[in-house]
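Q: Convert this sequence to structure tokens.
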Amino acid sequence: MTRYRERRSYCVYILGSLSGTLYIGVTSRLETRVFQHKQHSFPSFTSKYDVDRLLYWESYDDVHKAIGREKQLKGWRREKKVALIASVNPHWVDLSRGSHPLTKETGRGSDASTASARSQATGQVSLSMTLRREHN
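A:
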């Protein structure tokens, strides 16, 4: 009998604060992990500096490639990270806004925090959790 492994996806993500502080991480459950950042579930860098806005993410099928990409991005100068974010999210819209049922009720965040504001800011239809690059 052949056992099939469930296909997993690993995401490298960049979070930002309203003051411009950046954080890079990797996870297999992006929506849950971003929610944890938003709720400040753990005492950490992101809770200390209020870094909870999902600005950019990439998806990988291989955890080693995702970790390698995370390390690569962490090694970049800030200007290069900012350029990467701006290439797909020029207005630094919080891509996770409203993606988790509980974030809809918290009222946290500001600019471009509603679907209509995101549409105005980006000129596109709702971007929540849809903007990503797939890597195999």
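Strands lie at 10-16, 22-27, 53-60, 133-135.
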